[in-house]
Design a protein that fits this description.
Elements lengths: L1 H14 L36 H10 L1 E4 L5 H15 L9 E4 L15 E5 L5 H4 L5 H11 L3 E11 L10 E4 L7 E2 L4 E7 L10 E3 L11 E2 L13 E2 L9 E3 L6 E4 L5 E3 L8 E10 L3 E2 L8 H15 L5 H8 L1 E4 L6
Antiparallel strand pairs: 1-12, 2-3, 3-4, 4-14, 4-16, 5-13, 6-15, 7-12, 7-14, 8-11, 8-13, 9-10
Amino acid sequence: MARAAERLKQLINHLDQPPASIKAAPTSAATVTDRGYPQRLRYSFDTGLLTPEQRLFYEENGFILIKNLVSEEDISRFRQEFERVCRQQVKIPGLLVMRDVAIAKSEFVPDQKAVTKLQDFQEDTELFRYCKLPQILDYVACFTGPNIMAMHTMLINKPPDAGKKTSRHPMHQDLHYFPFRPADRIVCAWTAMEKVNRQNGCLVVLPGTHTGTLQEHDYPDWEGGVNKMYHGIRDYNPEHSRVHLEMEKGDTVFFHPLLIHGSGMNQTQGFRKAISCHYAAADCYYIDVKGTSQENIEKEVNDIATRKYGVDIPFKDTWAFRGRLVQGERLTL
């Protein structure tokens, strides 16, 4: 086993040679040689943290699960801060508090719809501490490189389903929401704040779909309705193999923004919590999404920003405003 692992490590080191020594792959997927090995690993860097096996797993599947990465103490602090926000004991600039369209049972405040998500918590010092945890950034650098921007922050609070299935999250690709590229230098860190399983609506991923292209998204036609900004892919192969990511508290999954994923109903009586951040290499660049499948999310975000701030803010500027440097040097983002 040790000899096989050393051989694999040598192979990875060979694949990580500078681009000048390797012919670039002309297709969206990694080129495969006669031996069945990719000429070059496209989706990660050799920082010495991920094992060769882990890098190849991410290359093929578009996600990797790291067990017990965030401490119980940190998760407890994030949970306490979430409760303070729900009780309106703190006012956080720019924070978007999202509520379920069908569930009136709040976790902390009587006679109020359930909070399903806190979005854009970059101004909350305690919650944003998650995005700067050294152990998280060590893994993020494997996918973005050393200069890292925290671009999109969320604390997800999936409520017990009220029978209308509104606690589901349709299958989607996160890149649909982002007007910056390249996709391969973007990664999400998603940490379970408690045990997450199929009963309370764990993440469901379609392995390997990160090698495809960005699909057209819109609101799904669901009888019970769908929550704000929960867009889903209009057409994907429902027969594609899927993985239910059952996780323990503190486990963290890192995944590519083109990976198709979603989550099922929460069929328990408790609220299922997770905290996440999307990171991008600081030398990523903004694109104009007009005339693309992302126009609908651009319009929705612009409408929300106009109502919230009273001014028309260009789509990419809403991201430039929210982005925060968490490691290295801020470049183009």
